[in-house]
Design goal:
about 30% helix
């Protein structure tokens, strides 16, 4: 993974759209906080290498319905940050 994009903004926030425009095929996107709401919005086009914090999904009652993603815990998030060459928090 080249860049890990950590997105905590909701899909309506301008930074969310800005992030999606910067993602390359070798990057990964991790949805946290209000970013997980994008999983239930079929109007949002999300990348293939998509992950979401399972605790944030549960807190917002978001189920994995509109987009395929891998739910992860905090331990996996830490591992991902160690593997990434660069991290951008949106």
């Amino acid at each position: 993974m080249h860049t890990l994009h950590i997105v905590s903004k909701s899909p309506t926030h301008p930074r969310f759209r800005e992030c999606l425009g910067m993602v390359s095929p070798e990057d990964a996107v991790l949805l946290t906080g209000n970013g997980v709401v994008a999983l239930s919005d079929s109007r949002v086009s999300l990348p293939l290498n998509l992950y979401a914090l399972s605790d944030d999904m549960a807190a917002r009652a978001v189920e994995q319905t509109s987009h395929p993603c891998t739910p992860i815990g905090f331990d996996t998030m830490v591992d991902m940050t160690l593997q990434a060459q660069r991290i951008i928090s949106w």
